Amino acid sequence: MFSYSCDFVELSDIFGQTIDRLSGSRSGFTITVRGDRTTSLRIRFTTDFSVTRQGFKAQYSIAFCE
């Protein structure tokens, strides 16, 4: 089980399996989720309201491969 304080973003697949959990000051990275692993991506933001600073920024793209 993960243990995070403050805020975090969790990515999970259609089966509820966690792909990644992000917290802290990580930036400038890419997470790739392949369509053969899941047809749906769940993004959940969780906060404990204890810290008020700038939040998360996310960008996504969908690529169709043949």
Account of the protein in words:
The chain has no helices and three strands. The protein has 66 residues and is mainly beta. It has one domain. It has a three-stranded antiparallel beta sheet, with no helix packed on it.
In short:
By secondary structure, the chain is mainly beta. It contains no helices and three strands.
Topology:
Elements: E1 8-12, E2 18-22, E3 42-46
Antiparallel strand pairs: 1-2, 1-3
Largest β-sheet summary: 3 strands, antiparallel
Helical stretch tally:
0
| Helical/strand content category | mainly beta
What is the mean pLDDT?
A: 80
Q: How do the strands of the widest beta sheet line up side by side?
A: 2-1-3
Order of helices and strands: EEE
- What is the CA-based Rg, rounded? 13 Å
What's the domain count?
1
Query: What gap, in angstroms, lies between the N and C termini?
Result: 37 Å
DSSP strand tally: 3
What is the molecular shape? elongated
Strand content: 15-25%
Poorly predicted spans: none
Q: What level of helicity do the residues show?
A: under 10%
Which terms summarize this structure?
three-stranded antiparallel sheet; mainly beta; elongated; 23% strand; 66 residues
